[in-house]
């Protein structure tokens, strides 16, 4: 996919918006999928392949930092470990720029704005 350098895809912007509100505790993939579905008023979750590829792309771009939670926390709750994501300074700047950019007025992007 080609896009202007420094711009965010709609999914990336939504991820950053959610992650900023939960910066203290961080977010993990399934929580993001639930939040994204709730934002859209949908019952279906975002495809995990789509979401996790976006998270990895954003991590490699420096927009998100990621770390694995302690194994003990997951074991105590009887579940797999979660990878916790937090917005970096670069991610916050990218989100601020996206918020300041004018929204598309027409075309297929209008529904995504």
In short:
The chain is mainly alpha-helical. The protein is built from 5 helices and 2 strands. The model has no long low-confidence stretch (mean pLDDT 85).
What does this structure look like?
This protein has about 110 residues and is mainly alpha-helical. It has a single domain, classed as Arc Repressor Mutant, subunit A (Orthogonal Bundle), CATH 1.10.10. Helix content is about 50%, strand content about 10%. The protein has five helices and two strands. It has a two-stranded antiparallel ribbon. The chain starts with 9 loop residues before the first helix and ends in a 13-residue tail after the last helix. The model has no long low-confidence stretch (mean pLDDT about 85).
Overall number of strands: 2
Summed up, the domain count is: 1
Please state the second-level CATH architecture.
Orthogonal Bundle
Q: Kindly report the spatial arrangement of strands forming the biggest sheet.
A: 1-2
Indicate the radius of gyration in whole angstroms. Answer: 15 Å
Task: Report the biggest beta sheet as strand number plus sense, adding barrel if it closes.
Answer: 2 strands, antiparallel
The CATH topology annotation reads as Arc Repressor Mutant, subunit A
Percent of residues in helices: 40-55%
- Name the CATH superfamily classification: Winged helix-like DNA-binding domain superfamily/Winged helix DNA-binding domain
Number of helices: 5
At the first level of CATH, the class is Mainly Alpha
Quaternary structure = single chain
Strand content: 5-15%
């Amino acid at each position: 996919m080609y896009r202007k350098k420094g711009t965010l895809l709609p999914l990336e912007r939504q991820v950053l918006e959610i992650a900023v509100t939960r910066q203290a505790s961080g977010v993990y993939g399934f929580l993001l999928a639930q939040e994204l579905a709730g934002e859209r008023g949908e019952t279906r979750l975002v495809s995990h392949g789509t979401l996790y590829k976006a998270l990895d792309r954003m991590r490699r771009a420096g927009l998100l930092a990621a770390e694995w939670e302690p194994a003990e926390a997951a074991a105590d709750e009887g579940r797999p470990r979660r990878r916790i994501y937090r917005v970096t300074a670069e991610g916050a700047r990218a989100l601020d720029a996206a918020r300041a950019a004018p929204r598309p007025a027409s075309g297929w992007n209008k529904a995504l704005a």
